[in-house]
Amino acid sequence: MGLFKSTFKAIRSGLAKTRQALAGSLRTLLSGKELSDALIDEVEAYLITGDVGVKATTEIINALRAAYHDGDITRGEEVIDFLKEKLKQRWSEADRSIAIANKKPTVILVAGVNGVGKTTSVAKIARSLLDDDRSVLLAAADTFRAGAIEQLSIWSERMGLDIIKGAPGSDPASVAFDAAEAAQARGVDVLLIDTAGRMHTQAGLMRQLTKIRDVVAKKIPGAPHEVLLVLDATAGQNAVNQAEMFARAIDLTGIFLAKLDGTAKGGIVLAIRDKLGIPVKLIGVGETLDDVEPFDPDSFIEAIFTTTADVT
Ligand SMILES: Nc1nc2c(ncn2[C@@H]2O[C@H](COP(=O)(O)OP(=O)(O)OP(=O)(O)O)[C@@H](O)[C@H]2O)c(=O)[nH]1
Ligand SMILES: [Mg+2]
After folding, report:
1. I want to staple 294 with a disulfide (CB 3.0 to 4.6 A). Which of 4, 32, 61, 266 is the partner?
2. Pairing mode of beta strands 280-284, 292-294
3. In 155-265, which ranges are E strands?
């Protein structure tokens, strides 16, 4: 289902830093050269720098070396296409779309560490849903950080959306409960719940998150239909560690990888794919509401390996 529209151009511009670091450097390294073991070593170093992850890099480099020794690849230029193909092969057809419940409302719970981009991502998802002609209700269940309710309220005003909020310091689970009730009563299509930033080490806050989930599930059978973990792509391997920890506390259905535009570490998507069984569903490529894209592996890989010269 084409819930969110993907444009190759937007992904391309959002991934400019990763592209420069990976494809740009690789092309400079490889062009006009005979392939050699030494050159393959250098390709390996670039993949590691791009945060593609050790597992994926090792497997791909072994395959490249084998192809080179078999005489299937002899020129540096051929390596880029080989890498693209191998990287694309690493993704299964796992469902990356946002789950929409048969019976309204669909509930999407958004969680993550402090400052990763949760609130902005909630607003972006709301925008995309509105563009898709779905009605949306927001829940400001971050009652913890001063200013958080206000921040989501500003987004809601800009989009003309209703928002359910509690008093600062109030129980976020009760805000979530009120919001679930309101979403049902008003017959909205999707309820989006923003939560406070928390570290996996903060046991009390992690329990609060599962409590939010539980009250919503009690009110709306089958909810939350999505539990999205927002990760900050600039955090590199740290983001992978965060995801592992969160997954232990709460069942995650997908990852929203924010701030891909701000990093050369776009290869982190691959590391996430290898380490966790959780699909990256959406990517954030900037600070405005439109800067969200569904994650599509093929477009993603094309975007990081396509230089300006290839685009007409
Ligand atoms: N460049 C870029 N910046 C982003 C993106 N997503 C969020 N940001 C910025 O990251 C900063 C933090 O975003 P928030 O949405 O407030 O993050 P949060 O996770 O809700 O933060 P807390 O509620 O304090 O835990 C803001 O300055 C956002 O504009 C993105 O995809 N790209
Ligand atoms: Mg927030």
Report:
1. 4
2. antiparallel
3. 162-165, 190-195, 226-232, 254-258
Note if the pTM is more than 0.90: no
Environment of ion ligand 2 (residues, CB < 5 A): 118-119
End-to-end Cα spacing for the chain: 29
Count of H-run helices and E-run strands, the chain: 13, 8
Q: What are phi and psi of 97, to 5 degrees?
A: -80, 160
Q: Give tens-digit pLDDT for 226-258.
A: 999 999 999 988 999 999 999 999 999 999 999
Q: What is the pLDDT of residues 65-112, one digit of tens each?
A: 999 999 999 999 999 999 999 988 887 767 788 888 989 999 999 999
Q: How far, in Å, from the CA of 59 to the mean position of ligand 1?
A: 34
Q: Which residue has the tokens 């928390």?
A: 198
Q: Tell how far the Cα of 287 is from the centroid of ligand 1, in angstroms.
A: 7
Ligand 1, atom 6, lies closest to the CA of 117
Q: How far is the centre of ligand 1, averaged over its atoms, from the C-alpha of 215 (Å)?
A: 27
Would you give the DSSP letter of residue 58? H
Q: What is the pLDDT of residue 66?
A: 97
Domains of the chain, first to last: 8-93 (1.20.120.140), 106-302 (3.40.50.300)
